[in-house]
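Run Antifreeze protein type IV through structure prediction, thanks.
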Amino acid sequence: MKVSVISVLALAMAMFYGSEAASLTKREVPDVMGQVETLTKYVEELTNLVKTSTQDLMSKLKAEELNSKAQEYIKSSRSQLEENLKPIADNMESQMKPLIESLKAQAEQWQPMADSLQTSMMDMWKSLMDSTKSLSSA
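Sure, done. The structure for Antifreeze protein type IV is below.
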């Protein structure tokens, strides 16, 4: 009898632990699937982040390259423009030099007359001021 009671208890315990193990196994499967889904989402987010970062980096590099090309173009255009304008500027200078010298010579000729006119105007002003003072004091 003791043996049968022990064997029944052993059988009951085995069934209990078996059912508990089965339910435990069933519970672990959804957790593993949840973890797999979480890892899958994480990998997808990481992949998207890497793609976005790579695209941003490429656009920045293209912008820098474009900026570099623009600066290079501006420098070359400037040097070409200077080369093309140098003969024109030299030609204008050579044509304007005689005119400027002629104007300077005329200004030197007119300077004594301008000085004389200034002196005359100052004398007239003084005379006007003196007559105004004499009228106001009278």
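The chain has one helix and no strands.
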